[in-house]
């Protein structure tokens, strides 16, 4: 695959303070400011997760974290999936999911993958093989569903 973004795959300890700041800023910009969710983003899972960051010209455009099995769910998970408003419409979300799934499989092999998805993105995640695996629930007044991607 030919990617448009410069991808970095790092443990928490490998992140520089500048990279960590960019990640937290992007997550806050989208999840707190844009989506108006009042929640504690710093949930003590980042330290045990791997971080997938996509940069364009030195600016963070896309991010996710790969959460190990047992920390959020029974299976490894991809979470905090976010694309910068500046990068929307450029295919970065597709790149991000492809890279995130690839990196998760490098870490854990061909295993089921779990996500907690905003309901309006259900079809997007289904295009990657995820299927709804739980009832609709409200998180910060936004409808979510658990989705699982079985072994491929």
UniProtKB/TrEMBL annotation:
One Pfam family from the record: Acetyltransf_10
Sequence ranges assigned to domain N-acetyltransferase in this UniProt record: 10-152
Lineage: Bacteria, Pseudomonadati, Bacteroidota, Cytophagia, Cytophagales
Annotated protein name in UniProt: ElaA protein
UniProt xrefs under SUPFAM superfamilies: Acyl-CoA N-acyltransferases (Nat) (SSF55729)
InterPro entries assigned to the protein according to its UniProt record, in alphabetical order: Acyl_CoA_acyltransferase, GNAT_dom
């Amino acid at each position: 695959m030919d990617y448009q973004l410069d991808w970095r795959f790092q443990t928490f300890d490998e992140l520089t303070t500048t990279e960590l700041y960019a990640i937290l800023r992007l997550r806050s910009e989208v999840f707190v400011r844009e989506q108006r969710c009042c929640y504690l983003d710093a949930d003590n899972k980042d330290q045990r997760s791997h971080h997938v960051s996509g940069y364009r010209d030195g600016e963070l455009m896309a991010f996710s974290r790969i959460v190990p099995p047992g920390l959020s769910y029974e299976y490894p998970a991809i979470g905090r999936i976010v694309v910068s408003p500046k990068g929307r419409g450029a295919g970065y979300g597709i790149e991000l999911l492809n890279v995130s799934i690839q990196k998760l499989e490098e870490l854990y092999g061909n295993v089921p993958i779990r996500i907690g998805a905003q309901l309006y993105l259900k079809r997007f995640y289904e295009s990657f093989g995820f299927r709804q695996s739980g009832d609709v629930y409200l998180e910060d007044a936004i409808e979510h569903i658990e989705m699982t991607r079985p072994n491929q």
